[in-house]
Each structure stands twice: as structure tokens, then as C-alpha cells.
Amino acid sequence: MSGDTGQHTRDVRDGFREIYGAAPEGAWAAPGRVNLIGEHTDYNDGFVMPLALPHTVHAAAARRDDGVLRLHSADVPGAAYRLRLDELRPGADGGWAAYPAGVGWAL
Q1: In angstroms, what CA-CA distances link 62 with 25, 33, 54?
Q2: Taking CA 96 as the corner, what is the angle to CA 11 and CA 105, rounded to the nearest 5 degrees?
Q3: Which is it for strands 26-35 and 50-61: parallel, antiparallel or unpaired?
Q4: How do residues 65-84 score in pLDDT, each as one tens digit?
Q5: Cα separation, 73 vs 50, whole angstroms
Q6: pLDDT at 2 > cutoff 60
Q7: What gap in Å lies between CA 14 and CA 6, rounded to an integer?
Q8: If 0-12 CB within 10 Å is exposed, 13-18 middle and 19+ buried, where does residue 59 land?
């Protein structure tokens, strides 16, 4: 995604509000990254050349008190996940939601 990151973050906030019926507690953006020289060498005193990419991930989130993780992707039409945190298991889902669900499982 390129362009105005601030506008994209506002769009993500608006989309969150539309889908979940409430404003998110926070919204963030993080650029993609690539290492042109070396992988896993930066923390081993090796030489690396990391670069930020124009592709950006935008996320909005809010806490829940019911043990449910709800995920939605604006890039995957119709893709919405509702998972109970106490039922998360590594490898249970291989779709786009596996990574954010894995973060929930680890936490």
C-alpha cells in the first residue's frame, strides 16, 4: 500500500467502527521490511542492509472481556474470523488469520 499512511490509518479506524460498532482503542501502521544483505546476522555482529518497503500493514484493535478474538481483513473480502482464545492451538488454521491468532495464543 502506498500513499498517505495517515489517511490509511483513518480508513482502518473507520472500517473497524463500521464492522464492530465501536471505535478501536488504537490504530497503527508498520512498513514492510527486507534485508538485502544477511538474514539473522544483525544480532550476530554481521553486516546487514535492512530497508523499509512501501507496503504497509495497518491494524486497529480493541480489548474484549469475553475471551473471543475477532479478526477481519480488508484485503480478503468476506474473511472474518471469530475464535475463542482458550481454543487456539498452533497449526489449527492455515489461513490469513493464523499469524494474528498465533500472537493471541502466545500471549
Answers
A1: 5, 26, 26
A2: 100
A3: antiparallel
A4: 998 888 888 888 777 888 88
A5: 27
A6: no
A7: 12
A8: middle
How many Å apart are CA 40 and CA 47, to the nearest integer? 10
- The residue type of 70 is R
- Which position has the grid cell 482503542? 25
How far is residue 57's CA from residue 18's CA, in Å, rounded to a whole number?
19
Q: What pLDDT is recorded for position 3?
A: 57
* Partner residues linked to 58 by β-bridges: 29
The full length of the chain comes to 107
The per-residue pLDDT for range 24-56, each reduced to its tens digit, is 999 999 889 888 776 677 677 777 788 889 888
**What is the C-alpha to C-alpha distance for residues 97 and 73, in angstroms, rounded to an integer?**
9
CB 88 within 8 A of CB 38: no
> How far apart, in whole angstroms, are the C-alpha atoms of residue 64 and residue 24?
11
pTM attached to this predicted model: 0.72
**Region of 41 on the Ramachandran plot (φ > 0 left; ψ -120 to 50 alpha; else beta):** alpha
